[in-house]
Amino acid sequence: MTRENLAVRQRNGYRNSDKSYRAAARSNRERGGRKIGLPIGKNGYIILEDDYFVSAAGEAARKGILMFASNFQWLLVCLGNPGKEYETTRHNIGFMAADELARREGVKFNKLRYRALTGEIRAGGQRVLVVKPQTYMNLSGESVKLAGGFYKIPPERVLVISDDVALPLGKLRIRAGGSAGGHNGLKNIIAHLGTDQFPRIRVGVGAPEHPEHEMIDWVIGHFTSKEKKTVDEAVGRAVDAALCVIEKGVQEAQNRFN
User: Which of the four, 21, 43, 47, 75, has the lowest number of CB atoms within 10 Å?
Assistant: First the structure.
């Protein structure tokens, strides 16, 4: 190896002592990964995101190694409000769906990034980033824009699970797009994505019997013990519907679950 070639390899972080990191990057390329380093000065890169090699990222960044990260094909957004006091409320049925999905898949959605608790599943051979926004419902779009923007996920592959007071308790409605229907979380997502053309699964939580009942009090109110069985079944069906949308498309999911 010439002195000039060695200098080029060193400048890009590929020194003899970095064999393990080069092997990791090579392995990630074989998995379809993409470069995500940004040059800093003349001699290195800064790591923005690294799903495969988190433990190595700090050392790799110090050495200036260009790392890689694989893309997600879908973003599954499960809406709700953070905090123990909201766990079993009507507005949190999206979070309940995420928890049921985590239970089924044997994973945890506990990595905090993009202003959300996140985790990964695979469905139909595709990588799915699941997010539970921690911004509170009315600012959910901030999380969606950050995650979707980073991985360049188009709106038609951003699938949202939310509650719907216009539907009877337990009923599902799957749509390929459309208005927010008065739902502030969906409204904020539409504002941040700049379009309402993204699929969503709306889970009915019913409406208050008395017109004088404040809607905000209703949606942050807790399900009753009598409603629990219906809610649990609806959450399970919402997860089934989400997987169906990802694996077989919106039309098939509508035919099966609407």
Answer: 43
| Amino acid letter, residue 145 | K
Examine the residue annotation and report whether 222 is marked as an active-site residue of this protein: no
| Helices 250-257 + 228-248 axis angle, to 10 | 150
Q: What is the pLDDT of residues 156-204, one digit of tens each?
A: 999 999 999 999 999 999 999 999 999 999 999 999 999 999 999 999 9
The tokens for 229 are 């069985």
Q: At which residue do the structure tokens 């890169």 appear?
A: 45
**Quick check: helix, strand or coil at residue 79?**
coil
The β-bridge partners of 37 are: 47
Helix (H, G, I), strand (E, B) or coil at 198: coil
Q: Which residue has the tokens 């539970």?
A: 132
Contact 232, 96 (CB under 8 A): no
Helix (H, G, I), strand (E, B) or coil at 208: coil
φ, ψ (nearest 5 deg) of residue 227: -85, -15
Tens digits of residue pLDDT in 35-45? 444 443 333 33
Task: Tell the burial category of 97 from Cβ atoms under 10 Å away from its Cβ (0-12, 13-18, 19+).
Answer: buried
Helix (H) or strand (E) holding 137: none
For the chain, how long is the longest CA-to-CA vector? 83
Other Cβ atoms closer than 10 A to 58? 11
Residue with structure tokens 């590929």? Answer: 14
* DSSP state at residue 71: P
CA 8, 14, 17, 19: dihedral to nearest 10 degrees? -150
Do residues 69 and 49 lie in contact, with contact meaning Cβ atoms separated by under 8 Å? Answer: yes
Residue 46: left if φ>0, alpha if ψ -120 to 50, beta else—which one?
A: beta
Rg (CA), the chain: 22
